[in-house]
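Following up on my earlier message about NAP. Here are the inputs again, as you asked, copied directly from the submission form:
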Amino acid sequence: MKQVQSFLCGEWQYGQGKEQTLYNPITGENVATACTDGLDLAAAKAHAQTAGAKTLGEMTFAERGQLLKSMSLALHEARDRLIDVSTENVGTSRGDAKFDIDGGIGTLAYYAKLGKDLGEQRFIVDGGPDPLTRATRFMGYHVKTPKRGVALHINAFNFPVWGMMEKAACALLAGVPVITKPATSTSLLACEAVKVLTEQNVLPDGVLQFVGGSLQNFFELLDGQDTVAFTGSAATGSYLRRHDNVVNHNVGFNVEADSLNAAVLGPDLGADDEAYQLFLRNLQTEITQKAGQKCTAIRRIFVPAGMIDQVQEDLIERFNDVKVGNPMLREVSVGPLATQQQKEDALKGIGQLVEDGATMFFGTPEKPDLVDIDHDNGYFIGPALLRVDQPQEHPSVHDLEVFGPVSTLMPYDDENEAVALVAKGQGSLVASLYSNDKKWVENVLMGIAPFHGRVYWGNAKVADQATTPGMVLPVSIHGGPGRAGGGEELGGLRGLDFYLQRTAIQGDRGALNRMFGIKEA
Ligand code: NAP
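Thanks, got it. Here's what our run produced:
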């Protein structure tokens, strides 16, 4: 049986004690074990803050960018090997595996370029000079320097490579060493990605360490120079951010949690509009990709009341062609969920939505027709499309994230109601609007923007160019207020701010200019 090892203090290690088992979601077979009992995580933290911090501290942004580029290239070369492990441990189709792995490779490459552009400096001057008095020499600047602790990264099970690398890219470019911990259930893939990096010798000593399993008592070691970037369920995020050490030392804590993302169809669109076809295409992708196990998947679909029957019919027609089963086959677009527990939770969630008044107009989630699967051991569920005709009254549809290929169609009467219904999600990662009516979009956008980290607008002009709303691109921020965690990642250089301390520096303008290499006209 394979072991998920940890990469600590420059060595691959395996714990001694209680092991956790990892499974193949397609067959239910054991694929690996993980154990961190007895591993010296305190030594790993010290190693990061000595060897790792020293190396990164001496590197310029351009050199850190070069490090990220080498990581991106190494992973790219090992792409097929990683895709195979993704199928084995995450149950993904080739396309879904690439979505995760290429996402990680691309984000590293993007931040590598930002590092190159920042050039030979080691800190960032943020604006200025700012006059402090009437005097012309005594001036202020704001300077951002890397924190002296570790960046602890805790990731969710659904993006073992992208989740790990998008966080690492920002921290390493900022100059802060990383200790990264994937969700144990899919940690074989995350471990393989780090193995690629150590085999290719691209990681300087201590800059990135990997915990393959439980973090043990790591939170007891955190102090005010450390940062924690967490992705996972709202419940775990809220539990961890209340840890005494986090609260008492004001440890920087970023949470990316779950989200009831909405798609809203504008009242101006009909079946012949390109933007309506984009809306349908996006719904299909966002409900089926990664078997709906994406934090940015569309969970709530709002359409004008007069369009709900048409949209329902069009969705049924599209979903009739969606095949569930062996993700190795090209024609299959929905593979299994990642774990047996995820399958049970998703079926229970659908049951709850129905018990609370939703009707299921498409799907037999608990018994889908499976392509090329002749056993009952995998973690498959079929797509389920639900409908709620009184969305203001349904007790759980705006609150319960069913983490599978599941979404609920609902009507709205006017734009005010559309805004109010979207806001009932209590803060989400992304909402998508579909309309060619600029005034309608402006009104809805202004109403829902405070509840979102990102809003996507699909109209006729971008229908053939737009990405899907669930695709997280490093140039735009990722995160959302309220129940989405209140966090923010990526967004170009904004993503570095979490790892940097901004300090106001006041003094002699000429001397500060020389120190910071600023040439004033
Ligand atoms: P989870 O159960 O909350 O676990 C998330 C991570 O926290 C895992 O690495 C887990 O490790 C770790 N963890 C759990 N308890 C811990 C503790 N006491 N101390 C330290 N670490 C602990 O979430 P999940 O099931 O992996 O992920 C699914 C959720 O993530 C969904 O709700 C989804 O919406 C959300 N998500 C959000 C985003 C986003 O960017 N906003 C992205 C992806 C997923 P173990 O596996 O070892 O327990």
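One observation from looking it over: Residues 223 and 249 are 6 Å apart (CA to CA). Hope that helps, and feel free to reply on this thread.
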